[in-house]
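EI: anyone free to look at a 88-residue chain?
SC: sure, send it
EI:
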Amino acid sequence: MDTFIVIDNAPIHTSDAFEEKIAEWETKNLKVFRLPTYSPELNLIEILWRFIKYEWIEFQAYRSWKDLVEYVEHVIKNFGTEYEINFA
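SC: here you go
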């Protein structure tokens, strides 16, 4: 059974030392899957932020930094009950 590790393009993941280990890891059924350069659709926090920003945020949240922070905290605390993401 293969095990996959998902990595971004951080400098450590593209270093020579990292690249040299890939062949060894593959003999141990460890596969490396590289994310595209920028892939917000695969990043869960980007998906959540997009919903907060474009679906759930109310105008009064922009009155001040304090209001915005409180609003975002409210969404995060109530995610899964009051706020849900449906992909269907």
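EI: The longest helix spans residues 44-56.
SC: 👍
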